[in-house]
Amino acid sequence: MQPDTQFEREVLIRMQKAIEPAWWLSSVADMRWKGVEHAGPFELKGVTFGQKYINLFTKHAMKKAYQEKDNQLFFMQFLMNALILPPSEYFKKEVLDMILDDNGSEEEMELRAELGVQDPEFFQQRLDEILPTFELEYDEEIKKLLESLQPVMS
Questions:
Q1: Which of 26, 86, 91, 137 is deepest in the core (most CB within 10 A)?
Q2: SS3 28
Q3: How far is residue 63's CA from residue 103's CA, in Å, rounded to a whole number?
Q4: Residue 153: is its pLDDT beyond 60?
Q5: Residues 6+ apart with CB under 8 A from 3
């Protein structure tokens, strides 16, 4: 049996793909503070849009939890921040449709301006252009286990 000459390289690439969502989310959170800047060989995609999206999503999650006693959106955000729910399940057209229904609030208008399209038909296409693609597959078993805990956390 011949050793795989690319084994180490493939492991390192997979590790990089695994940490990319955490690094991006952490950067998006950190860069909202005055004086924090990104320095590196490449530009971070979708930082401003990501910040505005997360802000409006959090506003909806708080409203739903307070008014309807429904913590489902907080749970969704928890799963995404814990990297159990892939960012692509959080940053997607269906969720964007929901959070853009904010009675013309300032946050909604800012997010719409960053999005740059008004037709919901093009939302997913635009999200795919604005945000990084996180290619690594997530462990569905861990996601199912955490989803089974949702009633306990509600």
A1: 91
A2: helix
A3: 13
A4: no
A5: none
Contact indicator for 61, 74 with CB cutoff of 8 Å: yes
Q: Are 65 and 74 in contact (CB under 8 A)?
A: yes
Q: In the chain, what is the greatest distance between 2 CA atoms, to the nearest angstrom?
A: 64
The contacts of residue 95 (CB under 8 Å, 6+ apart) are 57
Pair of tokens at residue 132: 């990084």
d(CA 19, CA 30): 16
Share of the chain above pLDDT 70, in %: 87
Model pTM score: 0.80
Residue type, 49: F
Q: What is the phi/psi pair of residue 6, to 5°?
A: -100, 5
42-69 pLDDT, tens per residue?
Answer: 888 999 999 999 999 999 999 999 999 9
Q: Which secondary structure element, helix H or strand E, spans residue 131, and what is its range? A: none
Q: Nearest Cα to 47, choosing from 134, 133, 131?
A: 131
Tally of CB atoms within 10 A around 125: 11
